[in-house]
Specification:
Length: about 260
């Protein structure tokens, strides 16, 4: 059975003191949740303090990006080795905001996913179509392109460590969520694709999160879809009560 994973992507929000306040609230409220993976993904500047705050907690630490090289002359970049050193477990790669604003491509996503895996960290690889692509009927083509490009050359053994986050771009930060049926349809397509590219076992065991305006009001319906194994939460992960409620509802599926 696939273990449910709920991750909060804080994006470019929270100073260190604000981040600590949020994470201390989450620790208090979520300390007895054992059956699912809970991940917080603060900005780089807060990773050190949050790592300390999460020592011996059931909440794991994630980072929002990583460079594909481990060190060198890459001003402004952070390497997977540095993230591992600070206590990170998961690394988000290929978020649509990075694809849209910072020139991330399938090729760079692929190099980053491989580098993260090589460092023994777990990638959360984001994929998903834009509104115009959905309206043009090319949703599945975009999903195929992102998955084939992002996972190119990754072995069956390694691919099972990847979490895929299906995030339709038109649903991110817009308040517009994909309907549970739309999300399930995309997740099922991804599983079929994994079967084609790998095999039945990968298709059955790889975890696929949904992301895009997930909130306490819609998590129940989404998480109860057979092929949705969790959520990548943006806006609602910035408020203790909202993220707690999303995790608690999802934990019901984990049992
Ligand atoms: P949102 O962001 O929940 O604010 O829509 C999701 C994401 O970008 O991962």
């Amino acid at each position: 059975m696939r273990r449910v994973i709920i991750a909060g992507n804080w994006k470019m929000n929270k100073t260190i003191s604000e981040a600590l306040e949020l994470v201390n609230g989450l620790k208090r409220e979520l300390c007895d949740i054992e059956d699912i993976d809970i991940v917080v993904i603060p900005p780089f500047t807060a990773l050190g303090e949050i790592a300390d705050a999460l020592t011996s907690s059931n909440i794991k630490l994630g980072a929002q990006d990583a460079h594909w090289e481990q060190k060198g002359a890459f001003t402004g970049e952070i390497s997977p080795t540095m993230l591992k050193d600070i206590g990170v477990t998961y690394v988000v790669i290929g978020h649509s905001e990075r694809r849209i604003y910072f020139g991330e491509t399938n090729e760079t996503v692929n190099k980053k996913v491989k580098s993260v895996l090589k460092t023994d960290l777990l990638p959360i690889m984001c994929i998903g179509e834009r509104l115009e692509e959905r309206e043009a009927g090319s949703t599945f083509d975009v999903i195929r392109d992102h998955i084939e490009g992002g996972l190119k050359g990754i072995s069956e053994q390694d691919v099972l460590k990847v979490v895929i986050a299906y995030e339709p771009v038109w649903a991110i930060g817009t308040g517009k969520t994909a309907t549970p049926a739309q999300a399930e349809e995309a997740h099922l397509y991804i599983r079929d694709l994994l079967k084609e590219l790998y095999d039945e076992s990968v298709a059955k065991n790889l975890r696929i999160q949904y992301g895009g305006s997930v909130k306490p009001e819609n998590i129940k319906e989404l998480i109860n879809q057979e092929d949705i194994d969790g959520a990548l939460v943006g806006g609602a992960s910035l408020k203790t009560e909202e993220f707690v409620s999303i995790v608690k509802e999802s934990a019901k599926k984990g049992v």
